[in-house]
Amino acid sequence: GTNPFWTTKPNYSFFTNKHTLFTVSSSLTHSLTFPQMASTEETPIRFGILGCAEIARKLSRAIALAPNADLYAVASRTIEKAKAFASSNGFPSHAKIYGSYDSLLDDPEIDVVYIPLPTSLHLHWAVLAAKKKKHILLEKPVALNASEFDTIVEACESNGVQLMDGTMWMHHPRTAAMREFLSDSNRFGQLKTVHTIFTFAADPDFLKNDIRVKPDLDALGALGDAGWYCIRSILWTANYELPKKAVAMPGAVFNDHGVIIACGASLHWEDGKVATFQCSFLSNMAMDITAVGSKGTLHVNDFVIPYQEHEAHFSAATESWFNELVTGWVPKPSKHIIAADLPQETRMVCEFSNLVRAIKKGSKPEKHWPTISRKTQLVIDAVKASVDKGFEPVEVGN
Amino acid sequence: GTNPFWTTKPNYSFFTNKHTLFTVSSSLTHSLTFPQMASTEETPIRFGILGCAEIARKLSRAIALAPNADLYAVASRTIEKAKAFASSNGFPSHAKIYGSYDSLLDDPEIDVVYIPLPTSLHLHWAVLAAKKKKHILLEKPVALNASEFDTIVEACESNGVQLMDGTMWMHHPRTAAMREFLSDSNRFGQLKTVHTIFTFAADPDFLKNDIRVKPDLDALGALGDAGWYCIRSILWTANYELPKKAVAMPGAVFNDHGVIIACGASLHWEDGKVATFQCSFLSNMAMDITAVGSKGTLHVNDFVIPYQEHEAHFSAATESWFNELVTGWVPKPSKHIIAADLPQETRMVCEFSNLVRAIKKGSKPEKHWPTISRKTQLVIDAVKASVDKGFEPVEVGN
Asked: How far, in Å, CA of B108 to CA of A208, rounded?
């Protein structure tokens, strides 16, 4: 099961050397500076995990592999379940095991809580965690709607804690390399249109029992899950400029409880940019970003989870044209291969831990991360409203 | 300029051998049988070209390379222009040069006319050609609307001549290989969603002077040109089942004369299938088909004009899923490389010539080709109507 590339926490020299395998523009290095900022003498940031969700297994490994983080505690509603989770997910012998979420939040040694709970529980537990002065790594969708999320943000701000959502692909070095391409006015130019897809064919058990199809747990269904990634990637491509309008597409599919299990939408900006996306639990896996600018084209087909951990690809084309008889392309698109020094979720943990460490030394929490979480949620809300209004255009809030 | 792969007409053994480089399902072999059907003893089918459009250069080469076709005649509105075209495009010494379209149509030796004229002239010249008993290879868009096209079809049917549009990629062996994948219920399953793009960044001269931006010549603009390919590829993916509804997307761009130079739309079927497309003269080149089924995913990024002539690629994935910790894909998509025995436009000429030869021997014209032309035009008409109605949903005609 576990990828053979990384089975133990690397030492600093390992990834200080490795991170030079890819190059990024200077404006992007803020997300890549953890090897330099960290020091082996400093105490790792202590993570506690609320609940034993399937995704928490992946995050446990990510924390274990992060040089500046400590896989410190896990809580479940029963101590037996928490113990079983810790023992099967590589928790160190010193790890704390809690039989309730409250008791984990009361542990003063814990710096960060990772919250992979069902979305309907985010408001309660994130606000409580903030009040307990825990920095928060919050799974997506961050809330049931932007209003709820604003309450979480307020709690984090008033308690001086960092908030970041768990969108792992943001932290892959490929993402920085693609951003460099998209930001280059000579290579990509002005964004004209972007199409994103995240679909997977869930099995019957998922479609019946997963929290993501339950109206009381994850009422946003496929839109809040797969759609989160589509919308985030569109906003990322558009440099986080919010669209003015969202129009859901007829053909959305609902389960017996009225939860969306497949839908699509188009997003529209004032300058004429158009984005479209499709998210679904009913189609074979696809994870595309196709961004077309006035001068360039970007293709990536595994943006959420790269095909493999050790490297990731994308295709970039600039000023593509035809040969003289229009029988071929000149130039052809180029394939870019980006080596990954660490799993993307470990990079996320490292980045988050660095922010927490800086706050411990007196810095303010970084507003970038909750800002893009909120924008993503605002677009989700608009698409959901458009679906509910029979696919009418809906203004995106701000 | 000319691709070095093919500079002279191949003999039959050349491509009888070569066509076994790819395999297709038995249902598709009708488009691949020309090496067997043809015989070196038979007279090649004689092509005449109406006008000296840029695209006619490519077709001249295609006809010259086709073993069962003869690059027989060209007409322009002045004989000087026709002479210059013939001499710079490899016409044989016996070729006929005409100073008017009418005189070419009056040549009883000509079997086929290729009509690359501006769309507004298609109705007149295609109907006249049919009356002169010429088989017709008609550039896209086939007409300004489906009603006009129906008049052309009636003229062809009443005169017993074959009609086919000039959508070259239909004839590439990759297209047959992709169809085989899409038709496989185990590998692709049921089509759920498809997104297609054809964009290119036209230069200022094109945007000012090309026939495709002139309201009196090609009033459908980018929708009739690049959009034709998008819509055809969507219909092809959907096995030519017409959608019920078309909804153009806000953000369409018009030139000063009101001609569409960029637009997008979504298409909707009764079973919930959704297609989206973007076509534009204002974005860097992109030519994507992304089709997602219940079991499989297809990606092709150069469907209109392959990157190079001698081979073409596509990516196919079946029952893609995650590894245990959701850190990679199992299985990964597979890349398929299809060798091309001849340029796709030469295959089109060969296929058309075979149909003409069969008609000369008593067969009826093949209705498949005008049927899919008409369906493509019907969807274009619906998208255009939706644009004109301010992006309201429009029922697709039938």
From this structure: 70
Question: Of the candidates B169, B195, B217, which is a domain's last residue?
Answer: B169
> Residue A191's closest chain B neighbor by CA?
B283
B132 DSSP assignment: T
Residue B92 is encoded by which pair of tokens? 């044989």
H-helix or E-strand spanning residue B62: helix B54-65
| Residue where one domain finishes, among candidates A142, A169, A196 | A169
ipTM of the complex: 0.91
State which amino acid sits at residue B247. V
How many angstroms separate the CA of residue A264 from the nearest CA in chain B?
A: 8
**Interchain CB distance below 8 Å, A321 and B58:** no
CA distances (Å), origin B362, targets B12, B67, B365, B367: 24, 22, 9, 15
A247 contacts in B (CB within 8 Å)? 249-250
Give, in order, the Cα–Cα distances in Å from B23 to each of B51, B61, B213: 37, 26, 41
What is the domain range of residue B141?
Answer: 45-169
Phi, psi of B79 (to 5 degrees): -70, -30
The answer as to whether A260 is a domain residue is yes
Rounded to whole angstroms, the Cα distance separating A224 from A212 reads 8
- Within a domain: residue B198? yes
What total number of domains does chain A contain?
2
Within 8 A of A238 by CB-CB distance, chain B residues are: none
Q: Tell which residue, A128, A135, A141, has the closest CA to residue A217.
A: A141
Residue B189 shares a structural domain with residue B249:
yes
| A281 plus A145 within the same structural domain | no
Q: Chain B within 8 Å of A5 (Cβ-Cβ)? A: no
The model's pTM is 0.92
Cα separation, B63 vs B52, whole angstroms = 15
**Residue B338 Cα to chain centre, angstroms:** 19
Specify whether A192 is catalytic: no
Element holding B372 (H helix, E strand): helix B368-388
Residue A12 and residue A40 in contact, taking contact as beta carbons nearer than 8 Å: yes
* Catalytic positions of B: 140
pLDDT of chain B along its 398 residues, tens only? 344 456 666 543 333 333 333 333 333 333 444 444 445 568 999 999 999 999 999 999 999 999 999 999 999 999 999 999 999 999 999 999 999 999 999 999 999 999 999 999 999 999 999 999 999 999 999 999 999 999 999 999 999 999 999 999 999 999 999 999 999 999 999 999 999 999 999 999 999 999 999 999 999 999 999 999 999 999 999 999 999 999 999 999 999 999 999 999 999 999 999 999 999 999 999 999 999 999 999 999 999 999 999 999 999 999 999 999 999 999 999 999 999 999 999 999 999 999 999 999 999 999 999 999 999 999 999 999 999 999 999 999 99
Q: Tell me: do A229 and A287 sit in the same domain.
A: yes
Q: How far is B148 from chain A (nearest CA, A)?
A: 29
